[in-house]
Amino acid sequence: MQSQDYLFVREFVAFIASVLLKCCKQEDSSDMEIILGGVASISDEISWFKNEATVWGVDLASVSPLKANLEYHRFLRSFTEPEISYAVAVTTFWTIETVYQDSFGFCIQDGNKTPPELLGTCQRWGSAGFRQYCQSLQSIVDRCLANAPADAVQSAEEAFVRVLELEIGFWDMSSSRS
């Protein structure tokens, strides 16, 4: 059961809100439409996790975040700070989404030995539609970083690396659960 993933997604909603707040201050309003396109899927994700919890008999209200999840939560909450630029925030958003898409997309490629019980999950986040969404986010990131000052680019690079570190911790946590 992905109870830790559910807790992450709930925290991710607040992070996306912080990205949207920063986006509102940008001149290009098309970014907001793209980001909002992903928000609707987050609602579906939360419903999916709740349904899975019911199937597995897990009371999500009684689940507490584990250490790796708490570290990720702290990182995501840091983006509410006004001094973090939109370029850094949207880069972080793109990185998180792309890690999920690439990971689950790999699982559904021909020749991979993904257990049948995981195929539905892999197809959910490895889909062509989600890949296209991530590519749209990448276009936003590319544009933002091309116009960003050097310190913002460096901060975006640091955030990128930090997301990868947090993802490794999260996946390690997930794979160690019974």
UniProtKB/TrEMBL annotation:
Top-rank taxon, per record: Eukaryota
Domain Thiaminase-2/PQQC stretches: 4-175
GO biological process: thiamine metabolic process
Gene3D superfamilies per the UniProt record, alphabetical: Heme oxygenase-like (1.20.910.10)
Protein name: Thiaminase3
Organism field: Zea mays
